[in-house]
Every structure is written in C-alpha cells, then in structure tokens.
UniProtKB/TrEMBL annotation, chain A:
<dbReference type="InterPro" id="IPR004656">
    <property type="entry name" value="HMG_CoA_Synthase"/>
</dbReference>
<dbReference type="GO" id="GO:0006084">
    <property type="term" value="P:acetyl-CoA metabolic process"/>
</dbReference>
<protein>
    <recommendedName>
        <fullName>Beta-ketoacyl-[acyl-carrier-protein] synthase III C-terminal domain-containing protein</fullName>
    </recommendedName>
</protein>
<dbReference type="InterPro" id="IPR013747">
    <property type="entry name" value="ACP_syn_III_C"/>
</dbReference>
<dbReference type="InterPro" id="IPR016039">
    <property type="entry name" value="Thiolase-like"/>
</dbReference>
<feature type="domain" description="Beta-ketoacyl-[acyl-carrier-protein] synthase III C-terminal">
    <location>
        <begin position="233"/>
        <end position="312"/>
    </location>
</feature>
<keyword id="KW-0808">Transferase</keyword>
<dbReference type="GO" id="GO:0004421">
    <property type="term" value="F:hydroxymethylglutaryl-CoA synthase activity"/>
</dbReference>
<dbReference type="Pfam" id="PF08541">
    <property type="entry name" value="ACP_syn_III_C"/>
</dbReference>
UniProtKB/TrEMBL annotation, chain B:
<protein>
    <submittedName>
        <fullName>Transcriptional regulator</fullName>
    </submittedName>
</protein>
<dbReference type="InterPro" id="IPR022002">
    <property type="entry name" value="ChsH2_Znr"/>
</dbReference>
<feature type="domain" description="ChsH2 rubredoxin-like zinc ribbon">
    <location>
        <begin position="12"/>
        <end position="42"/>
    </location>
</feature>
<dbReference type="InterPro" id="IPR052513">
    <property type="entry name" value="Thioester_dehydratase-like"/>
</dbReference>
<dbReference type="InterPro" id="IPR012340">
    <property type="entry name" value="NA-bd_OB-fold"/>
</dbReference>
<dbReference type="Pfam" id="PF01796">
    <property type="entry name" value="OB_ChsH2_C"/>
</dbReference>
<dbReference type="Pfam" id="PF12172">
    <property type="entry name" value="zf-ChsH2"/>
</dbReference>
<feature type="domain" description="ChsH2 C-terminal OB-fold">
    <location>
        <begin position="49"/>
        <end position="109"/>
    </location>
</feature>
<dbReference type="InterPro" id="IPR002878">
    <property type="entry name" value="ChsH2_C"/>
</dbReference>
Amino acid sequence: MTEEHVHKNGLLKPNRPVGIIGYGAYVPRYRLPGAEVARIWTGGTGGSPVKEKSVPGLDEDVITMSIEAARNALARAGIDPFELRAVWVGSESHPYAVKPTGTIVAEAIGATPAVSAADWEFACKAGTEAFTAAMGLVGSKMANYALAIGMDTAQGRPGDALEYTAAAGGAAYILGPAEEALAVVDSAYSYVSDTPDFFRRAEQKYPEHGQRFTGEPAYFTHITSAARAMLDLTGAAPEDFTFAVFHQPNAKFPQRAASLLGFKPEQITAGLLSPVIGNTYAGAALIGLSAVLDIAKPGDRILVVSFGSGAGSDAFDIRVTDKITERQKKAPTTQDYIARRTPIDYGTYVRIRGNLALK
Amino acid sequence: MEIPRHWRLKKQRYGLVGEVCPHCDAKIFPPRDVCPHCGGEAKTAFNFSGRGEVYSYTVMHDAPAGFDQNTPYAVALVKLEEGPVVTAQLTDLGEEQPRIGMPVEMVTRKIREDANERGMLIYGYKFRPVLR
C-alpha cells in the first residue's frame, strides 16, 4: 500500500452522522501570574510564555473538575444521564494510578450502571482520543450518546519552564446523532508517530522534555500534518473556516501553527485561551473549542487540531447548527469561569499544589 | 479506614441525592427512608437542585484529623431551596467572606484522603458562591 493510498483512506468518518449534543467547560478560580514564577526563579528578569495560569484549589482534581464540566454538558444536552453509554475521561493527571476516574464521574452525574467508563491516556491529546472514540460509538449506532472529557491538573517541576504554563481545566462533550446536535462533527483525522519529545515515567512526579524535540519534530510537524490532511481530504481551504483551535502549550506555538497553515489571527482569537489560563494539557484543545462554541453562530465552521506528546494530533471538521443559540445559555460559559479569578502568590501556589513536605 | 461507609453514602454525597415523601411531598436529606414530617415510608430518590443559602457558618482554624491541611476553612449550615438544612464546607470563596444569606450552589469536591496517601480519596458535596 502506498503512502498516498493510506493518506486518502485516513479520514475517520462515522457511518451515521454525529455531532455535539452538549458541551461544558471548567476552569478553577485561582491564577498564578507568570511574573510570580519569574520573581522566584529568575529574580524577576525573565519573560513569561503566558500572562497567568489557572491553578486548582486544595479540594480539586481531575475527577471533581470533570464532574462539573460533565454537569454543564448535560445541562446543555438536556438528556437524562441514564441515556449515556460512555463516560470517558482523557487526562495525564488521573488522581488514582489504579481505579478509574470514569466510574466516579459516572456515579456523580447519575449515569451508572449501564455505561462504559474508562480513562484515556495520550499526553495532551487524551481528551480528543476520547472524543474520537465517542464519535465511533455513536457513529456506528452502538450507542446514542457518549460523554468524552479532556481535563488536567498539569504537573511542572518547580523552576522548570513548564511551571509558567502547566495549568488546570478542560471541557466535556456529549456526542450524539447529528440531527440533535448543536454542531455536527463531519470527520476526524488522526496523525501519530513515535516521537520522543516529552514523557513521564511511571511513578515519576514530573515530566521530562526530550532534548530539542518539542517544537519542529513534535508540535509543528504533527499539528500541521493533521491539519493539512484534513484540509486536503475535505477539499477545504483555511478561509472556509470561521474559527480554528490548535493545541496551546503557550501563546506562541498555536499562533505560529495558524500562520504556517494560512489561518488569520482573527480565526484563532476566540479559542486561544493559553495566554490567560495557561496550558491545560488534555483539556487545552477542547476548552478552546468550548470557548468558540460559546460565541458561535449557526453555519460557522470550526477546525480543531489537538496535539499530544509522544506524539500525535487529532483534527476535527465541525459545523455549527441552528440548535447552538438556545443551548449556549443553559450552562456557564468558558469566559464565565475565566472571569472568576483570584490571583495567588507563589507561596500559596506551592501550598495548594501539595509541594510542601508536612511530614 | 472506613471504606464500606464511604461506599454506602456515595450517591447522597456525590450528587446530593435525597428522598421525597410520597405522602406529604416533603424533600428529605439525608435520605432516611422514613419521612421526618409525616412518619410515612419515603424511599423515592430525589435529586436536589444544589441551590440554597448560608443559614449560619463558622471558620475552622483547629480542624479534626484528616482536614488539618485545609485550614482555615468555612463550614456552613446551608438551607437548600427545597427545605432541608445540610452541614457542609464552603469552597471557592477566594477573597469573599462567608455571610449569612449568601446564595450558594453545590459542587462535588475532594473532602479528604482516607487514612493516608495510600488510602482512598473521599469525594462529596461542598457549596460555593453562585457562579452566575
């Protein structure tokens, strides 16, 4: 089989049309300004890749944050939680090493017991993996509704460059039949390769960067390859999209990816949240999409491209329907959560992230 | 460790699931299968809206075992809009001070770790100032 043949058959298209029935975001209320990290580690002389990042409270983790995002998604979907046949949570900060996040979230939202519950892992694209699988479950008619969540409370070693950006937040999506959808997901395209850009070994607290693999060989190669394949296979051009959302580990990378692909700054502004909440890892692309859906109008077309280290990207071609308008108001918006903001200093950050040894 | 108790109470703690009395329509929390108002049998599950207001509160500086890493934190009597009064922690206050009459809503949060870092994580309801 030639590479061209593989490429042409690479589009992931469900047998029956599927779409987003409901969605919901979550961002915790605390913010650590980049200037605070610089004050401690560089004497205040270094710049910061983001203005500030979101920080989870003492009583928050991926489970509690997923529960709230899922409740928001259910409020917009207007379905009984018993109708969900999957509760899938993608994250790199599942609170337990062994014991699923999915069962606790499913129990809390009232979806148990006739439901598949599982945790997904693929660095920062674990959320879009769950989203793609949910498309498949609904698209094959195995189920009518499936919940996919991307959520993280990201880890960054104190003093490391990641400490400026490693943030907390994400979004939940209920996939269902296209005729009920506020946005139809026409197709997906997944592009992966074995790339050693970033990893965390089992039982290690903090991740490691793989030398200089982060930029060109990892992020830009996978994002642009997935996006170009999606454009090519759907016959679309960048100007056909009202909005585009790219995985956002900082403010600069997604802007450069957009520029490389021929997207204009005004197409990515609504979904570019990393400057004010940081990098929410498995939540990043999906919460960018939720911010876009909050303001989208019927007929808008959205390109979403995630990225996960290790490495890969998932691209989605999404068309907003006329059902969006009434459902936007049924739950707090992404910007409602971003506006709810309490800045903290580095000392408070160290305490609430559990980095103080108390015994 | 008290794993059986946490498992038994999970529904009411995660989602504020109580009961409604089929005889007098009283909403009951915590669920107790017998209506405290009319004495009739009441086993019908009822999902509370989670909305209410602070009836009274105190701030904990000297916390019981398991909660000591969270001090200071506020504990309130919250009067739910359906009637019952529940005791719960307030969370996400930020710079806001708790006050009697404050409108609050239920969120599911981590309450504490059971026993130590090897024990299970206990989740349950808390209340925060209404988001919007």
